[in-house]
Request: fold
Amino acid sequence: MDVVINEVLSILSSAAIASVIALGLGITFRLMGIINLAHGEFMMIGAYAAVYAGAIGLPWPLGLLAGVLAAAVVGALAEVLIVRWLYSSPELSILGTYGLSIVLIQGVQVTLGKGYLYSSNPFPGAIEVFGVAYPIYRLVLIGAAAVLFLIILLLLNATPLGTKIRAVAADGKLAETLGIRSSRLNLVVFTASAALAGLAGVLVGPLGNVRPDMGADYIFTAFVIVIIAGNSIVRLIPAAILVSTVQNLMTFWIDPMVAKIAVLVIALLVLQGLRRTPGEVTV
Amino acid sequence: MRRLHWLLLLLPLLCLFVSNYYSGLVGQYAILGATAALLAFSWGYAGVLHFFHVVAFGLGAYSVGWFALNLGPDGLWLGLLVAVLLTGGVAFLLGIAGLGKNYSFMTFALVTFVVVLALEQIAVQFTAVTGGFNGLSNIPRLGFGDWRLSGSMNALVLATVAVLLVIGLRWLSTTPYGVALRAVRDAPRRMGSFGVDVPAMRISVFVLTSAATGLLGGLFATQTQFVSPSDIGLAFGTSILVWTMLGSKTTLLGPFLAAIGINFATTGLSESLVDYWLLIMGVVFVVVVRFLPEGFGVWLVRILPSRWRRAPHVEVRRAAPEAPRDAAVGGAAPEFVVEQLSVAYGSNRVLQDVGLHVSPGEVLCLIGPNGAGKSTVLNALSAVIRVESGRWRFGDRQFQGRSPWRIARDGLSRKYQHPSIATDLTVGQNLALAVWGPRYRFRRLLWQRWEIEIEPSAWRILEAGGLDARLDQLAAELSHGQRQMLELAMALANPCDVLLLDEPAAGMTKVEAATLASLITEIARDARPAVIVVEHDLELIRTVADRVVVLQNGGVLAEGTYAEVEADVRVQEAYLGTEAQHG
Amino acid sequence: MQIKPRWSVPLAAATAAALLFGMSACSQEPGGGSEAPSGDAGALKIGLTVDLSGVGSMIGTPGKMVAELAVEEINAAGGVNGQQLELVVADNGGLPQNTKTAATRLVESDQVAALFAPVDSASRDAAMPTVVDADIPFFYPTLTEGQVCAPYLFSTANTPQQQLQETIPVVQELEGKTKWFLIGNDYVYPRTSLEAAREFNEAAGGEVVGEEYVPLGTTDFQAVISQIRSSDAELLLPVVVGADTVAFEKQAYDAGIGANVLPRLTISYDDNTMAALGQDIAQNMYVGMGYDMDLDTPENRAFVEAYRAKFGDSAPAVTAYSIYVYATIKAWADAVTTAGSTALADVAEAIVGQVNTTPAGEVTILDNRYAQESIHLIKYVEGGEKEFVQTFDNVIPAETCSVS
Amino acid sequence: MAELERATPNAGVGLEVRGLRAGYDGSEVLHGLDLTVAPGEIVAVLGRNGMGKSTLVNTLSGSIAPIAGSIHLDGVDVTTAAPSARFRRGLRTFRQERPVFPELTVAQNLSMVGVKSMAKPSSYFEFLAKRGGQAAGTLSGGEQKMLAMARMASGGGSMWILDEPTEGLQPSNVERSGAIVLEAAERGCGVLLVEQHLNIALKVASRWYLMENGLLVESGDVGPDTRRYIFGRISV
Reply:
């Protein structure tokens, strides 16, 4: 029995991590129509800031804050300097953000060095859950993901700012004639998505490896989840759970490689079914 | 253009004068340059962005490697053949799935992105064929039996193949097929209505470029004698995308030279500033995306002497005027008849049992307040939208249920409201595509020469619009009125029995509208097509209309000569809101 | 601005010239990084291709440093047969394709007398065809799964079989446990290592209760961890590499199967990995490696002193992945001195059987071009300290391939 | 071109447009327009569609950048200002197609201009009272236009530009919209009403322009016989 519980908890914690990463990517994809290949690098910046904050003795919550702020600042700078000109065409957004990710990785390598960083686990050890010893930190992650999604969804659907953001996403020209400065709003939304990536980076740091090109490991799964979720932020959660379930179960029962290929096949089927990405006119 | 090609052929010769090391690099980087040019042909010319080029390159390299290592050195020729067939086949399947009717630019790019990720994993895992992480090594060079080329000779052959491929692509881009690709990129719907098979064009260019990339991948493997998963992964694929973009995707030479230049710079300089090199490349790339999204190549083309850049001249001749058709058929002249035409969008009924009849040479004007269904009638008759019910024929030729290009081929042609001609092409090229569209399958465009015959009525419109002297001018440089004239001429380029005109005078000045009116009357009199005009400009309607039909809420409100309709009270009410006042 | 046709000819010539200039600028470019003045006709050149960019540089950078130290020491002692040595370095950027290009440049353009390549096995395979034509010795001085023999290929670092053969029985004895679980990344090096491990476990009376492979770049090890937990494993033998190592060990520790509960014997966790894991997770882990910077032998103390003196205390740690570059350059120099020539046949004849005293202990190259050398069993204890449990000298590489 | 007869009491100068030329990607639709709207004045722009009326509205709102000419609002040059900047200067626009956000609810559409409760909007059009939570996309074409008009009415502003606000509405709602426009003018707001239907336009406007082929060909004050004169010019 406890194998099943362990499996469920594993799936939930994997889904929690994946959905937090996919949340930032989904926001830029769904609300701003751009594909942000530098999303992983904002995670890395968050993780680095948290590690350096920890190194100078700051407690974990301040480290978390440092990570989020660092990623937000870099995100805002990136938006003002390059991303602002990418909204017009999706293909430019791919190339522009790809260049941005090179600059961020190489920039960190040249300044902070290339080695692995030690990121300590703020909640070490395990506790009894339904009779199964399960790492505390992963339970914290599940909680954090749930709270984060609640906040974002509430903000988008229940606050005036959220309404304005969705309005600009739906029809930028009309929103502009109603007095909404779409360029300023885009800056806010992109900075927020970078901050979310930073937060994800801080949360993932203790589980994995903090190094300049750590972003690449997570981007693949986040991408698949955003594709499967289509054009809705809410559907990121079921999509994350689906991908984690397939990956965990297949790895456990069949073979890790088959699991990875299975997730890709799901993404291809969804893309074929979807026929066109959200908000894009086909001919 | 010839001089440029001879200059390119200089590149392979370099292999003879430099050390074995550098000739090897020339060979490799020429192949990568040609791969970038192929991607530019698909992405910049046909508007199809994809990551499949890296899969094709990898499949080619692996197939040459596997066959050469398992069937002996000469196995590599079979490997090259398999490379081309395999990549072409996989590209065909992907094309059928993704480039069909509801092609979406972003979705297709994402699909091929995911395919690359999958294949990179499989290459590492599928050790039996791909040699896994270590890949395949000691792949033999080109040659027969024991006679194998040396490093530099092998590179010479590769560089020559690459240059010839680029020259071939440049030739292909000036053929009607290449020009039609650019038209499909700019105005897919319009080209479709001319009868150009848009999906087939896209699939053919995707398969062609992928198969060629597969060949290049195979040749590349004979030069490096090695292939491994990390060499054909996503990083490799994205760097080709980067070179193509920097070199500018709307040219072929740009990406070719950009790929070679950047690679040489990378090997030459990277030792001394190893840490900073990638950072510099990243910054340069971001700056280019921001300030010069169309890449360096476009500058290169602009400073090239214009004589080298001129689009091919189109020889346009007037067809001999045919005997008037209606006299030919005994008894009643064939009429264009529309019966019980009904169209509904979901629950909202837009047209209800509309009936029309127009005899050859007669001009019928459709008018009514907007939202009355005028454009819907034209869309239904030209099969741009599906009808709920209704039949329409000219003489005994039925049109309902046929696809748009078959209708165009059977003599029912249409001019759209907003001129959607291919602005990147010259006037002559646009006309040529209008003439060939309904007649030829796209393969015929490959060896078609640039000379066409257009109907006298179309020639008359060109003269009226002053376009007969501007056949080699880019359509982008025409005024709004001239674009409308060109669109009209394209609709009349082939013989047509029924002509549908959707607001031909929209956006025209008074003078242009007046000349258009006299032209329509003249064409109706000479070529005697049955003409239906949807228009708001009352002066135009007054001068051209033999009969007027007033539509309201999807039904025929009134019919008759212009004077009768003008006097009809119900029409005034429909046009001017609630109470109509007399006088 | 209408360009008149007569401009086209000079324009075309300009582009061609730019291309040629680009290339010629490259050829005069000296190997870079070498101390000796460039173009020194009399110097005897040796080539080093190494990964200086990306995360692979954690092996490449120390490799380059120890190579420079070796050349400096040899030149200080009079060079080789009176000739000063010159080290020519080429960065391969971590890609096999670039290693091929770098090797070709060193061999054909710089005419080096020997090539040293501490790179991954895919890059080694890429570079080998070039060296075959040049008839010079090709030294592969980093950890390798072996299995490849050639007259010109000298693999002087540890093979998995050497690292496991003596250490498995000792760990079983010390811990009093026999049930092993094997886990590794899914490619040739871990597969070969775990195959050898299974052999030695059974030979030492142990038992393999589970074996699992995960793709490179895995970030979530929960499924594998639950498999380990549900098997009754007592000892773990992980051959996980790079970033996956840190992710696996952290998640295992959190899940309650850290080294404190399930001791590890590993052959791929070097100082950099252990530093990234942190003291608690590293505690109670056994490592079987040919070298460790804290080895307490006179040769190693002298080497570390010289290394710190030249590069300072913050220089990257030298590990089993990079020390053999130093040892092999010196061995090559001695062989050339005894043979009196740098030709492959003479060097090979001299170097086979030559006993070299190195910071990692005695290293002797056998006729199948692999090296018999010492293996140290190190245990990480409280507070990140290392305990040198046992040293096995002259462990013979049981490579089956032969050179004839 | 009829001159402005009497100086209006309000201090602001209202809307002034000089030599305006604009169009879409290269093809010019407006060939040089001059018009003025004083605060508190309702001016109608009449003409059949296809004459460039919507292009004029989109250029004045800032959605399209003009090719030449100038636009001044209360004396300030807003020719190249962003639409949001013009909004802050008091400009309010009613677009002909898709005037509302279909994905957002009726209440959220209204909240875009700071309207919190449904009371005020439903005072103009009762049907809005019970539709607050409903997505605007589910309303009919006419209802969407009334929602947009309610948004205009509750959104303040010193200069209104409306593009065929009454098209497709039944007579009672056309009257209601007319009343809203009159009410706005009374509190000193200038209104430019672009209309194809003469009746409602001439009922509320005090001055008119006639638009043909991208030019304002005639203008004048609204008098008893204006309706018959213009009817002759643009009718069938």
Remarks:
- The longest strand of chain D covers residues 27-37.
- DSSP finds eight helices and ten strands in chain D.
- The CA atoms of residues 46 and 210 of chain D lie 5 Å apart.
- Residues 1-11 of chain D have pLDDT under 50 and may be disordered.
